[in-house]
Amino acid sequence: MPLPPRSLVLAALLTSSGCSLFNKQAAQKDAAPIQAEDETFSAGIRQTKKGDEKLTEFDLNRDQQPDVFVYTVAAKTEDGRDFDRLVRKEMDLNWDGKVDVARQYDEEERIQFERLDLDFDGRVDQTNVYEKGTLIRKERDVGYTGRANTWVYFEKGKITRKERDTNNDGKVDYWEYWENDQVDRVGEDTNGDGTVDRWLRPPQPANG
Ligand SMILES: [Ca+2]
Ligand SMILES: [Ca+2]
Ligand SMILES: [Ca+2]
Ligand SMILES: [Ca+2]
Q1: pTM of whole model > 0.85?
Q2: What integer is the mean pLDDT of 32-47?
Q3: Residue 6 is inside which H or E element, if any?
Q4: Which of 8, 52, 135, 196 fits a 20 to 30 Å CA distance from 202?
């Protein structure tokens, strides 16, 4: 039996994160950001089945090895009907037997965290953080150092700021501020005190 084209399978997996596009208006600006745990960057991407989670496995490429792991918990709808609420999903996108994407969902089954293993070594290299299903931040370990050193912030789907820890001392020393999908100004901390000492592009006039 012919397999589905792999790109289609991947596309389906990558777009199955729920209706985030339609939840943008509902996102609250003033809500506290959800912090991803820093240790996830050196931790393995797979998490064992917890508590009362139910695990359902799928073998999309039929090689007798599961590649999608869906974790649900028993829940009830407002009118009292039983259903399995999605809490986590793990996926092996390149079919090497190791999970590469792990997603976590909130109580309304909206994506909350998405952890990515970009170099396929089984460890997390990037975490995407969502609020009510809308992307608010990406945290990335550039250079595979074992912890996050690049952060990208989003509001209503647009980049507002990028921050980097360029010397991996755990402190941000590079800031990019974005306006209307363009870099507006760039600041650098040259003396390690955590504040900007040099603007690589001067701040633009406010009305423009
Ligand atoms: Ca498989
Ligand atoms: Ca894999
Ligand atoms: Ca990795
Ligand atoms: Ca630094």
Answers
A1: no
A2: 64
A3: helix 6-14
A4: 135
